[in-house]
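Repro case for the chain-ordering regression, as requested:
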Amino acid sequence: MEMQSDAEIRRGPAVLEGVIANLPMFRAAPRQSLAELARHARSQHVHRGTAVCRRGDPMAGFYAVAYGMVKLALRTDAGEEKVLRLVGPGETFGEAVMFLEKPCPVDAIALADSLLVVLPAEPVFALLERDPRFARSLIASLSQRMHGLVADVEASSLRGGLQRVAAYLDAHAESGENGVARVRLPTTKTVIASHLGVTKETFSRLLRELAQLGLISVARREITLLERSGLADIARNGPKAR
Amino acid sequence: MEMQSDAEIRRGPAVLEGVIANLPMFRAAPRQSLAELARHARSQHVHRGTAVCRRGDPMAGFYAVAYGMVKLALRTDAGEEKVLRLVGPGETFGEAVMFLEKPCPVDAIALADSLLVVLPAEPVFALLERDPRFARSLIASLSQRMHGLVADVEASSLRGGLQRVAAYLDAHAESGENGVARVRLPTTKTVIASHLGVTKETFSRLLRELAQLGLISVARREITLLERSGLADIARNGPKAR
DNA sequence: GATCGAAATTGAGGTGGATCAACTTCTTTC
DNA sequence: GAAAGAAGTTGATCCACCTCAATTTCGATC
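-- result from build under test --
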């Protein structure tokens, strides 16, 4: 523990700078600014299942994920939760809240042991003051995020469950070894289900429905897309428009 | 027609500058920058029911509403629509899309005869380059917008219809003449319903339910909040937790 | 103030997805 | 590698909200 902490302190700054430099919003920033940010940043290790911050917490900066995965979720008093976003390596969260200087509106929970980089607000504001290109990147980043949110609203208010699942699989396809399209779910089906706006039970049934249509085959978290075009068709036109 | 156009050209710039100066994001901008922006801006009159822009259109700038009202909505091929936001006087839309340099993701339809101010991207980018305070305001504005979207997602995925209606009324209450809280719906119930994520039929029934509970009384678009606390209670805790 | 189209209400009936419950299969831990 | 717990599946049932259809009311126009 003592030794690990020691090692982190020694190699910390360089690692931090590396993580920061690879964030999309800092791509255009000069090296000196990055070093400056890294000097004020700190790393934070969180274990699987623990909260990075909870709704209502003050937010004195924003977070970047170095490795691991964090879910941003809303929860009701009754314990139901809606996953807003899954944040993976190289992605950030909390920027918008930092600027509003309001308490955190969501829960952020680590889904895996994760290393986060915390960027305090002040140095970011300072950089903003001095580097218009950074401002531009940050604005682009926020705009992108907003576009994603609008897409989610569109999906969950205008499309049915099957359509959303099909669209999700289509959007997350990677081509596997022999050119076969596959999706590896980044976390549990329960969490994915909540992200897609259905219960785990319904998600399970929808996957089975797609499998019975011969469009996919499911093995644990590995999903093979057997008929990409049919899947894309459902994603676009829904189940009925056969 | 010719005369009106003439008049607009003459007094246009001053009016435009006035409208722009009163937008939250330009509050901190120096007068000279405002004049500069106003010089590149143009006004656009749209009649009730006509489209300002449609999904897929290129967006070479963003819009401010001087008077009137615009709805931003997503629509399905089948004609159903989901209203994302109602934009009234002194509010803006299209900033995020402008920065993404992507086609417009929503339809923008005038709900009343409206005067819009169109701010082309280039001068905004230029101002951004030169005035960090403006960048800060713009970022704050986008963050605010995002916060609103998240709140909408929360409402429509975690709360039931009655709860959403109650929350809407509670949030939009103004105190009328004799200190009685009232809400004047800004547009048709059909549009409000879509904004709240229910059909007009359901909205009608939910209002009636609240009325039968003695919490409100409805007269056309004028709604009187008879028991503010009971309404707020439903908004927070739902109908069951009596 | 009569007329016509849009908006709103009301009723009857259907349904997508939630809920509840039992069980199976993974995963983690000691 | 056994035990305990988390995640996933499956079936039965339920319900909030939607859909369809018939009026009624409102609001603009002549």
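Ordering looks correct now. Chain A has a mean pLDDT of 91.
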